[in-house]
Amino acid sequence: MLRWLAGRGAAPRKISRELAHITPEAWLTVLSGLPFLAGLTPSESEALRQRAAWLLASKNFSGAQGLALTDNIMLSIAVQAALPILKLDPALYEGWIEIIVYPGGFLTPHIETDESGVVHEYMAEASGEAWEGGPVILSWADAGPGRQQHANVVIHEFAHKLDQYGGDIDGMPSLEAHAQLRPHQWGTVLEQSFDAFSKALTAVEDSIPQDVDPESASAAAWFDTLPLDPYAASNEAEFFAVSSEAFFVNPGPLAKGLPDWYTLLAQYYRQDPLRRLA
After folding, report:
1. Which domain holds residue 202?
2. Does 96 fall in a domain?
């Protein structure tokens, strides 16, 4: 049963120990806190448990700012991270070893150049980051069960890892194991979908009355008409990551608003959450 895991980041004996630690009680506790997993078949649930065990055995979990990592925290993160590779090769998560978990949001340095060419350096709060060749960093306040039902920071950051494994961080993961998918096809659908979403976002922004602050909660009614969070329009890499989290946790609006892109993601991940969650 564990032959497919051998040599992929952890010794089979270590993986077997992690599997043994995932008791039925612990497994059900974690699944109950992640409603988007409700439609998994028994065989899919077992495959997800094996991949979660592989992650626990292969990655070093570290708590930051005094966060005491419990078995439940690590298992919950591992399960969410394992969902995108449920039917993919776990080797796609190789090349790095650490997952750092903060109790809440954390500050990260940013550098931006404005239209005048002036460089601005500042610190901004983040709920997750995926460093190229380095760790995945997460906020447990945003990654834990019962948090945002239509977003998922763990899936978002691990989608970035899939993107990074494919080479350039450009919204195109490795397609080597997908004979039916071609880079040109992916690039075309990605570009068309990204442009369509960007135009839809601009239309929504233009429709917000002048007396409504677009940065306030009052503007949510307008932005909620979009199939994705506005952050997806940042660039193609963020479009892929935001789309991936929506694909798994809130697939309906994505499938309706960007059907060709949803179909392409379903072919890549070899899953159909829309049918599963129905």
Report:
1. 183-277
2. yes
Query: Same domain for 61 and 188?
Result: no
- As for how many domains the chain has, the answer is 2
Indicate if 154 and 110 belong to the same structural domain.
yes
pLDDT digits (tens, 9 = 90+) for 118-154: 777 766 777 889 999 999 999 999 998 876 678 999 9
Write the CB contacts of 122 (distance below 8 Å, at least 6 apart in sequence): 109, 110, 112
